[in-house]
Amino acid sequence: MKFVDEFRDLAKARTLVEKIRSLVPQIPVCKQRPLQLMEVCGGHTHTIFKYGIEQLLPEAVELVHGPGCPVCVLPMGRLDDCVALAERPNLIFTTFGDAMRVPGSKKSLLEAKAEGADIRMVYSPMDALKIAREHPEREVVFFALGFETTMPSTAFTILRAEAERIENFSVFCNHITIVPTIKAILDSPELTLDGFLGPGHVSMVIGTGPYEFIANHYQKPLVVSGFEPLDILQSIWMVLKQLAEGRSQVENQYRRVVPDGGNAVALRAVHRVFRLREFFEWRGLGSIDHSGIGLRPAYARFDAEQRYPVPNLRIADPKSCQCGEVLKGVIKPSQCKVFGTACTPEKPLGSLMVSSEGACAALYQYGRIDLGKNVRNHGERSIGTRSA
Amino acid sequence: MSETAFKKETRLRLRSGKVRGETITLAHGGGGKAMHDLIDDVFVRSFANPALAPLEDQARFALADLARGGDRLAFTTDSYVVDPLFFPGGDIGKLAVNGTINDLAVSGARPLYLSCGVILEEGFPIAEMRRIAASMQAAAEIAGVQIVTGDTKVVPRGSADKLFINTSGVGVIPRGVQIAAERARPGDRILVNGFIGDHGVAILAAREDLALDVPIASDTRALHGLVGALLKACPDVHCLRDATRGGIATVLNEFAETSGLCMNLSESAIPVREAVKGVSEILGLDPLYFANEGKLVALVPGDRAETALAAMRAHPAGTDSAIIGEVGESPEGTVILHTGFGGERIVDMLVGEQLPRIC
User: Fold this and answer.
1) A58 preceded by cis ω (within 30°)?
2) pLDDT at residue A259 is higher than 90
3) pLDDT for B14
4) A&B contacts, CB < 8 Å
5) B245 to chain A: which residues are within 8 Å by CB?
6) What residues in A contact B200, CB-CB < 8 Å?
7) What is the pLDDT of residue A363?
């Protein structure tokens, strides 16, 4: 396929891997321990497992799968809030497909739907607004989720709802911003990270400027990366080249999509509608200051948390769950006590097993040949679309 | 009795009921005149054939006729709930006929007779029911099978979504044909009869909530002709299954699980249309799991693979057939995709449904 196959060319990948390999002896830290690079974004994690990129890399280069899967870092209590909203009479709860199967403390949205809640999968918040327009007698809530990638579309939808004076539409806002979380990880005493692959789609909106402190203050190289396997390999090579040359800079490998200055129109809409919350709970990482996004008071009527009572309870993760340590790169997914046994995509205990962008689900789905574990699942096989 | 005499007989026995009104009401399932009129006017008229004509509570066949075709009966059932009812390349009726025929065909059987049970939601347009019944008959005629018995139920509005169809089918398996998942052997080649995922993408695109404009039609078609050609060229076909819900990934997992062997797939050999690849990329879905309605996966002995492939390609339902992989011994019970990128990954049973990624 055009513009896709070019970025999956094995011969070019091998050339890049050789270039990566030849840099390793020039990097001082590699003499003591393997290099650790964190890919921040869940989309990168998915590509890395899907294409077996870790199998191609030299042993001296390790990838740590970061917190950039918005579904994975959502605390269980927020899921319970979703279910509580969805179960309100006369309410239509709309959500991206990813969030449907994430377990709450009692049930997932998929289970709530089966029990009768009117929950509808949408592909854009504009679809949710359309539902509100078509059902003026019902209340419609959109479950807004994701980093800066999805924030502009939520913002534009709210602005549209305001312009059209649509009264029965609101947003349960769970947007988060990645930069404070990278800072929290960099401040963690357990840290051994040597460099970062920066998120591609987030950067398309915010540009490369917000990462400068990582290079300047923490002296870690960061390369904003695309999502195809050759993008990832080239970005890894770029990080290693910086390390070999003793540099720490923010570089942009994903220039075909990411302008250094970001998207000014999208950012204006985001700033108009959203504000930073004082703090926000991340699953596995705990509360991180100024990492959550809420609606500005001027848009309170579009804020589901203002319109409806939301339980807002804090639910502790199951004790056996080690998602936090995996997210910080302290352990690998396969080192978690419950990986592939008590915790599988079919019955996920931890959030990293839920979304295909979660490190554990990606490893379980694509990487188990190496693990020598052949845990088969015999789960439900229903297809959402009634195709027969 | 001659064929002409049969037709005359059928016509005489046809009750002359005429359905009134434009929508299905509860009365059409009530057992009274309205129901008889609906059955006569829509179903009997569409499906007219000697076995259906007497309108007894069951169709009857002579055992001797069946025995001439083989030594075993194949019997199957499937229910059809597709939404939307009409989509590029077909409709629920065509699907209900071809789908059940294919479930028979992959045993090697020659499909002969189908039943047709419909569950209608009150308020369903009679014109659409007529159109769907005609489509069923057209598909049956193309495939050379007869719809010989049926049932109609109507449920109150909201108790079912528009229309559901169940079809059961009977066919005869020729002597000597032994197709079963447990017969997979290391060294067998894996064949598919053309582009995968067309039906799944056609349905996704036909749904209003996804404003996707994709030039893809459902691949629904009967496959027993193709199976016949394949068996003629390669009588020792080990495994055969049609890859409907869950796609070829599911069928291959079933083969792997039953046989305890490893299904090795070569990603670059699997026929997938550019548009289907595009939809998969946009939505973050995997075409290996997309539904098909006219695709089968065959396992044949390695030394017969090229012959089997040539026979399949010579048949209209198999022009784009390809050898997509080979059966190995380990890791046991597993499907492995060898990617174009030089890596390997497990293709597992789908857990839940394929949910699109958000970013």
Assistant:
1) no
2) yes
3) 53
4) 152
5) 381, 383, 387-388
6) 383, 385, 387
7) 85
Q: Which two tokens stand for residue B210?
A: 């996804």
Q: B64 φ, ψ to 5°?
A: -60, -40
Torsion of CA A57, A62, A63, A65, to 10 degrees: 140
Provide the shortest C-alpha distance from residue A26 to chain B (in Å): 27
Nearest to A353 by CA among A383, A382, A385, A375: A375
Residues of A in contact with B356 (CB under 8 A): 96-98, 123
Residues of B within 8 A of A344 (CB-CB) are: 351
Per-residue model confidence as pLDDT tens digits over A293-329: 999 999 999 999 999 999 988 888 788 888 888 877 7
Beta bridge partners of B300: B189
Among A62-66, A354-358, B296-300, top mean pLDDT goes to B296-300
ipTM for this prediction:
0.76
pLDDT higher than threshold 70 for residue B3: no
Percent of chain B whose pLDDT exceeds 70: 92
Higher pLDDT, A339 or A354: A339
Asked if A12 reaches chain B (Cβ–Cβ under 8 Å), the answer is no
Looking at CA atoms only, how far is residue A189 from chain B in angstroms?
Answer: 31
pLDDT at B316 over 70: yes
* Band of pLDDT at residue A380, cut at 50, 70 and 90: very low
Mean pLDDT of chain A: 89
Rounded to a whole number, what is the distance in Å from the CA of A247 to chain B's nearest CA? Answer: 31
**Is B70 in CB contact (< 8 Å) with chain A?**
no
For the segment A75-103, what is each residue's pLDDT rounded down to a tens digit?
889 999 999 999 999 999 999 987 888 88
Q: Which of A45-54, A108-117, A141-150, B315-324 has the lowest mean pLDDT?
A: A45-54
According to DSSP, residue A328 is labeled T
Listed in sequence order, the residues at least 6 apart from B326 whose beta carbon sits closer than 8 Å to its beta carbon are: B187, B188, B189, B190, B264, B302
Q: Cβ of A366 under 8 Å from any chain B Cβ?
A: yes
**A28 in B contact zone (CB under 8 Å):** no
Mean pLDDT score, B46-52:
85
Q: Per DSSP, what are the bridge partners of residue B149?
A: B115
Q: Do A101 and B350 touch (CB under 8 A)?
A: no
CA distance B241 to B248: 9
Please list every residue in chain B whose beta carbon sits closer than 8 Å to the beta carbon of residue A345.
Answer: 351
Chain A hits for B207, Cβ within 8 Å = 385
> pLDDT class for B19, splitting at 50, 70, 90?
confident
Which chain B residue has the Cα nearest residue A124? B358
Overall average pLDDT of the B95-117 stretch: 97
What b/e readout covers B177-196, taking b as 16+ CB neighbours within 10 angstroms? bebebebbeeebbbbbbbbb
The 3-class SS string of chain B reads CCHHHHHHHHHHHCCCCCCCCCECCHHHHCCCHHHHHHHHHHHHHHHCCCCCCCCCCCCCCCHHHHHCCCCEEEEEEEEECCCCCEECCEEHHHHHHHHHHHHHHCCCCEEEEEEEEEEEECCCEHHHHHHHHHHHHHHHHHHCCEEEEEEEEEECCCCCCCEEEEEEEEEEECCCCCCCHHHCCCCCEEEECCCCCHHHHHHHHHCCCCCCCCCCCCCCCCCHHHHHHHHHHCCCCCEEEECCCCHHHHHHHHHHHHHCCEEEEEHHHCCCCHHHHHHHHHHCCCHHHCCCCCCEEEEECHHHHHHHHHHHHCCHHHCCCEEEEEEECCCCCEEEEECCCCCEEECCCCCCCCCCCCC
pLDDT score of A384: 35
B12 touches chain A (CB under 8 A): no
CB-based burial label for A296 (10 Å; 0-12, 13-18, 19+): middle
CA distance A1 to chain B (A): 6
